[in-house]
């Protein structure tokens, strides 16, 4: 049963790649799941919009401009880059990551365990894989929306040196997927939300603080630097920052993107298995 | 399996159907067929294997061993095709509290690949059918239990299914809500929809089912029409006697048993009452008085599926 599941996922990915669009694993049926999420979104889009604009504005004001006044006095520390410009692309990526981590935890738990609406959907032609892919598309949509709003605030505050900053949006969405897919795999193994508290306390929050968001990882103790290298957030932040500052090293950027794609793909494969184990028994 | 030998293909066909979870066997080699247009019931207590059976028919739970076809198709290979023609009313409501009553139906229609316009047309029709039109734009949460169940039934009909699976459709509802629901199910049956339901209420099985199987501990222990089962396993009437047992008095069931001896063809002593199975309840009650028994209350009633179940398993249906 399991090997069959893995083969069919692999086949969908292979077909997708052959057609030149990896998105082909998104079937028409999984688009229906996205439609559901957009229907829910339609009810509260203004609150998403409001927080999507106010959050980046407040963060950049307090940390980039406020804290930046002090950081910039030691201008050589960040290679002469203003602190606002330094953290803006990093915060753009981290907030997409945070939203993705949240969306793949509690709301998915609700659909699996508290309200069990996934089970209603499974009584239609939809499958567990459709639910997984559809809700991942929703999370990608939400990450895109948040990142575009964040980008708008960056542009308004003049916090980017290079027009390449627009590419921080796809980097943020990819980072969001690298978190959402493995967390959805984890969520489908849980029967309550106590695991999420541990996940956020010991996983997401430390990543937010120590993945090069606020200061270069070279300032971390030596033994922690390789750990930062292994986390997808570090790669998302580094890629987005190099684009925003116009300091792109093609090889470095390629490695960052490759790591994000690898983690997202592995997460999707794991989530596929854990969704089936949970929902199709 | 007498009435499945007719020319029409059974909608559901099961032989040796088994579901196991690790070492635990939830459904243990059951055989049954459901014919088109029939109302077929699984009667049994909680844990008898009814829900596991329904989930296998609904193709959301893989068959462990044995044979199962739905619409002549194999669930392992044609799950999506089978589900496209099925309506399912699950035990839990599984309604979406983030959407309105109408939206719950609309999106479900989309899951079945209906156009928005068609989904809206059917949703409005179905809200009318389950008498929820006035609540179309309300949230789901404030609806009463009976309304939620009706909405779930409406939802299950959005794809115009030819087979409707209902897992304990009226559990937890008040009598009025149950009767309204039964009425809607009866109308569906009139329209030719095949019903397959589970219940642990004998009155529900008697009201709705043409034919049923009694399940206990993962197996089918009896089958037939409600009337056949009652005729075959119990007497026409039941005399129920309740006795007050004064505080501190020891168990006198032995004494009681002696006095009841020979009163009827079968006597069942339950913790709270004694059931006397007889063709003439009044006469049996009179005899009990003659023998010096002074029950606190006496009731003569028609026998029911509950009695069938007690006869077959020695336990009552609803614990």
Main traits of this protein?
heterodimer; A: about 280 residues; mainly alpha; 12 helices; about 0% strand; globular; B: about 325 residues; alpha/beta; Rossmann fold; Alpha-Beta Plaits; six-stranded mixed sheet; four-stranded antiparallel sheet; disordered N terminus
List the helices and strands and how they pair.
The complex is a heterodimer of chains A (281) and B (319).
Chain A lengths: L1 H17 L9 H16 L1 H27 L11 H21 L2 H9 L2 H6 L5 H29 L11 H20 L6 H17 L14 H6 L1 H13 L5 H30 L2
Helix pairs in contact in A: 1-12, 2-7, 3-4, 3-7, 4-7, 4-8, 4-11, 7-8, 7-12, 8-11, 8-12, 11-12
Chain B lengths: L11 E10 L2 E11 L4 E5 L6 H8 L7 E6 L4 H10 L1 E4 L11 H11 L4 H14 L15 H12 L6 E5 L7 H16 L3 E6 L2 H7 L2 E6 L2 E6 L1 H8 L3 E6 L10 H8 L5 E4 L4 E5 L2 H10 L6 E6 L2 H9 L6
Helix pairs in contact in B: 3-4, 8-11
Q: Percentage of helical residues of chain B?
A: 25-40%
Largest sheet of chain A, described in full? none
> Could you name the CATH topology of the largest domain in chain B?
Rossmann fold
Rg result of chain A: 19 Å
Q: How many DSSP-defined strands of chain B? A: 13
N-to-C order of helices and strands of chain A = HHHHHHHHHHHH
**Considering DSSP H and I runs of 4 or more, what fraction of the residues of chain A is helical?**
over 70%
Ends distance of chain A: 11 Å
* Tally of DSSP helical segments of chain A: 12
Oligomeric state as shown: heterodimer
């Amino acid at each position: 049963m399991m090997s069959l599941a893995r083969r069919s996922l692999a086949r969908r990915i292979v077909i997708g790649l052959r057609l030149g669009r990896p998105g082909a694993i998104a079937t028409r049926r999984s688009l229906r799941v996205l439609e559901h999420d957009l229907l829910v979104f339609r009810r509260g889009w203004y609150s998403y919009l409001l927080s999507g604009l106010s959050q980046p504005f407040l963060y950049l004001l307090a940390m980039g401009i406020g804290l930046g006044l002090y950081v910039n006095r030691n201008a050589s520390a960040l290679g002469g880059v203003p602190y606002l410009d330094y953290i803006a692309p990093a915060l753009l990526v981290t907030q997409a990551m945070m939203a993705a981590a949240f969306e793949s935890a509690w709301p998915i738990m609700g659909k699996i365990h508290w309200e069990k609406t996934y089970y209603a959907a499974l009584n239609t032609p939809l499958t567990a894989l459709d639910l997984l892919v559809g809700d991942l598309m929703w999370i990608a949509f939400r990450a895109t929306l948040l990142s575009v709003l964040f980008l708008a605030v960056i542009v308004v505050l003049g916090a980017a040196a290079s027009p390449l900053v627009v590419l921080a949006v796809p980097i943020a969405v990819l980072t969001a997927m690298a978190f959402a897919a493995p967390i959805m795999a984890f969520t489908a193994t849980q029967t309550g939300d106590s695991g999420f508290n541990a996940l956020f306390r010991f996983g997401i929050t430390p990543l937010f603080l120590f993945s090069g968001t606020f200061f270069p990882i070279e300032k971390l103790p030596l033994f922690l630097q390789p750990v930062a290298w292994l986390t997808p957030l570090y790669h998302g932040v580094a890629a987005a920052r190099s684009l925003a500052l116009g300091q792109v090293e093609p090889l470095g950027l390629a490695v960052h993107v490759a790591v994000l794609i690898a983690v997202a793909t592995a997460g999707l494969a794991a989530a596929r298995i854990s969704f089936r184990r949970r929902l199709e028994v | 399996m007498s009435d499945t030998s007719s020319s029409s293909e059974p909608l559901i066909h099961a032989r040796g159907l088994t579901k196991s979870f690790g070492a635990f066997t939830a459904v243990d080699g059951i055989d049954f067929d459901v014919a088109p247009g029939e109302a077929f019931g699984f009667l049994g207590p909680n844990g008898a294997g009814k829900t596991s059976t329904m989930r296998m028919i609904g193709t959301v739970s893989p068959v462990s061993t044995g044979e199962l076809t739905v619409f002549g198709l194999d669930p392992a290979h044609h799950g999506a095709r089978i589900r496209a023609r099925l309506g399912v009313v699950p035990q839990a409501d599984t309604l979406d509290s983030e959407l309105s009553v109408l939206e719950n139906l609309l999106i479900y229609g989309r899951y079945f690949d209906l156009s928005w316009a068609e989904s809206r047309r059917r949703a409005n029709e179905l809200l009318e059918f389950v008498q929820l039109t006035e609540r179309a734009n309300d949230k789901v949460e404030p609806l009463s239990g009976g309304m939620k169940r009706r909405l779930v039934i409406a939802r299950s009909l959005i794809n115009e299914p030819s087979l409707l699976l209902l897992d304990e459709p009226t559990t937890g509802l008040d009598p009025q809500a149950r009767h309204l629901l039964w009425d809607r199910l009866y109308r569906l049956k009139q329209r030719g929809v095949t019903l397959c339901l589970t219940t642990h209420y004998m009155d529900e099985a008697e009201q709705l089912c043409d034919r049923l199987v009694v399940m206990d501990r993962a197996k089918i222990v009896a089958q037939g029409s409600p009337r056949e089962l009652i005729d075959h396993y119990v007497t026409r009437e039941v005399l129920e006697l309740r006795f007050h047992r004064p505080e501190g008095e020891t168990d006198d069931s032995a004494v009681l048993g002696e006095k009841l001896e020979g009163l009827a063809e079968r006597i069942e002593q339950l913790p709270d009452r004694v059931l006397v199975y007889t063709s003439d309840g009044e006469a049996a009650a009179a005899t009990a008085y003659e023998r010096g028994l002074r029950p606190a209350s006496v009731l003569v009633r028609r026998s029911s599926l509950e009695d069938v179940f007690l006869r077959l398993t020695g336990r009552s249906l609803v614990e």
